[in-house]
Specification:
single chain; 191 residues; 68% helix
């Protein structure tokens, strides 16, 4: 019995000590400043994840999203895509890729611009690089499938459609677009 009372008193003193410390500490509700004045790595990762979306579609080229403001060359590339200046888009996105070589969106946009120039080989290379950087990049799956249709390889496009079906838990534009493109290809090919 004495041990139980002593343990209860000890726990009470410990709890009150923590409460007094927390109440008297100025700014105890704010996050601590990381050492050396740098950003907390979790905060930097979270803000980067919010600033750079995983997937974008070419439909989003029309909007000037806030995250496009982060890199002037990326912004110039998006502006060039809207103006259908494919060579200008490639040049701007290549500069952005020098600063951010792991950005799958940049590689996807470069591939799109090459495909619009009917340079399918470089387009496929950039789409594949986008998928190496982010295997769940829906837009790169769609555009790579469309490029394979241009090359007359509907089986590869169908494979990418299957991958999109697994990626899109809810109906998604990229799946619908590639499915329509495959159907149009089959109609034109007489299948």
């Amino acid at each position: 019995m004495i041990r139980s009372v002593a343990l209860a008193i000890l726990l009470g003193v410990l709890a009150s000590g923590v409460a007094v410390y927390a109440i008297s500490l100025p700014g105890w509700r704010t996050a601590p400043t990381p050492p050396f004045g740098g950003l907390d790595s979790r905060a930097a990762t979270a803000s980067t994840a919010e600033a750079w979306p995983i997937c974008t579609t070419m439909a989003s080229v029309a909007s000037d999203a806030d995250w496009a403001q982060l890199d002037p060359d990326f912004k110039a590339g998006k502006r060039a895509l809207r103006a259908e200046n494919w060579n200008g888009a490639i040049a701007a996105f290549e500069l952005a890729a020098l600063r951010d070589p792991t950005n799958a969106d940049i590689q996807n946009y470069i591939g799109y611009a090459y495909r619009r120039l009917r340079q399918i080989g470089p387009a496929i290379g950039h789409y594949q690089k986008a998928l190496m950087l982010n295997s769940r990049h829906r837009s790169a799956h769609e555009h790579l499938g469309e490029a394979y249709l241009v090359l007359g390889e509907p089986a590869k496009a169908q494979h990418l459609l299957g991958a999109l079906e697994n990626l899109c838990l809810l109906p998604c534009e990229e799946y619908d677009d590639l499915k329509r493109a495959i159907a149009a290809y089959k109609t034109l090919a007489g299948h």
